[in-house]
Amino acid sequence: MKKEYFVILIGCLLSVMACTKRQPHVYRGLPDEYEIAYEEIYGHCYDSIAQAVVALDLYSEGLELDKNHRIKGTGYNLYLSDIFVPDSLLEEGSYRHSKDGEAFTFLPGRDYDGTPHGMYILNIEENKVIGIQVLDSGSFVYRNDSLLFTLYYKNAYGYRAVYSPTFHGTLIPWRKK
């Protein structure tokens, strides 16, 4: 009887511990379309790379930037840094992830000790970031004031997932200092 009681007690403790273990953030309802898009213009900022650099900063419905360029609201923010362009602005064409710094490429997403770099999505609720999803690879097409993305990431369960949002409209230029 003592042995059965001990086994049941251990089973209950393990169940409680499993329930208190931090669960990964599950992204549900990622937007199919983004409402606002900024093109951050950095210019020729790398000595070893001939291309100019821009970034794309996209906001879903429910998010906006205040006058200090801080995010306000609830929604999703898709960010792609280090997009390498031949001149100074994003040009029409197809772009792919790469580390080589060639024109029409952009850096893949990476997580460096909990800090996202390259491309990622922020899940924001009431002006606070509640989740970050790094996007490790992908491509996008820019034509006729439209962006069509095909981006990949590992979901909360470790499976490879695809995310294909769009943006239709004018990119708002924002020169970074």
What keyword list fits this structure?
177 residues, mainly beta, 13-stranded mixed β-sheet, two-stranded antiparallel sheet, 1 helix, 17 strands
Low-confidence stretches: 5-26
Shape: globular
Encode the helix/strand succession as letters: HEEEEEEEEEEEEEEEEE
Strand content: over 45%
First CA to last CA: what distance? 73 Å
Radius of gyration: 21 Å
Could you report the average pLDDT, rounded to the nearest whole number?
A: 86
Number of DSSP-assigned strands = 17
The helical percent reads 10-25%
Q: How many helices in DSSP terms?
A: 1
- Supply the helix-strand structural class: mainly beta
Task: Itemize the secondary structure elements and their pairings.
Blueprint: H1 2-20, E1 33-34, E2 36-43, E3 52-59, E4 63-65, E5 71-73, E6 75-85, E7 93-97, E8 105-106, E9 110-112, E10 115-117, E11 119-125, E12 128-134, E13 137-143, E14 146-154, E15 160-163, E16 166-168, E17 172-175
Parallel strand pairs: 1-16, 2-17, 7-8
Antiparallel strand pairs: 2-3, 3-6, 4-5, 6-8, 6-11, 7-13, 9-10, 11-12, 13-14, 14-15, 14-16
